[in-house]
């Protein structure tokens, strides 16, 4: 699938509009209509970053993560198989594609339910997909905090002019850009390691965004009337999927110690 810049921008605008108006089964159906299966099959390097980043930015959800795992293992995209997904703390969750109703209030509004056990799945592509989702969520939180900082006036001037606020926003942006840079590295030589590091970096960026943006927003950031709380809850759950940032960082360090050297991941 070859697309010029104008076509890609039109596709992104169409996807964003769809995700702002639909979520869950409705969004699954809309993405099917837009040719999600064909995009994932023909151009995964374009489809996955675009669709998952927009899921994060819009706060919507769809069962496309299951499709990524199915496609990576040579199965049919759109299959309703119940696929156990690793979750933080050596746990497992299943994405309910049928009812698409959140089984637990702690799952950030996602239709996930905890399972006692599971079986190994291919996680490289799934980790990259969730990483883009986390980056989208982090960017959504940063946009909310930035706008609040511009609008909120204290001592006769916007709080965006205060150094402490600027530092929190800048720290968040640096974390997001660093995680995205990790995702855009060529992964031909070490795809599994790069996906692991990208997921760890994206999870850390989203958690940094949640902490800093909630501080910038102040009291309103802790209320359910403001939409920040939905992104914070979603980021906490997404960080736990396929290994949390803390777990993956430890795993990467243990692997490098056992190897005795660090592979070159980028040409500087």
TrEMBL record:
InterPro entries: Acyl-CoA_dehydrogenase, AcylCo_DH-like_C, AcylCo_DH/oxidase_C. One of its GO terms (cellular component) is cytoplasm. GO terms for biological process: fatty acid beta-oxidation using acyl-CoA dehydrogenase. SUPFAM superfamilies: Acyl-CoA dehydrogenase C-terminal domain-like. It comes from the Bacteria. It comes from Mycolicibacterium frederiksbergense. Residues 125-245 form the Acyl-CoA dehydrogenase/oxidase C-terminal domain. This is Acyl-CoA dehydrogenase. Keywords: FAD, Flavoprotein, Oxidoreductase. One of its GO terms (molecular function) is acyl-CoA dehydrogenase activity. The keyword Acyltransferase does not apply. The keyword Flavoprotein applies. Signal peptide: none annotated. Pfam families: Acyl-CoA_dh_1. The lineage of its organism: Bacteria, Bacillati, Actinomycetota, Actinomycetes, Mycobacteriales.
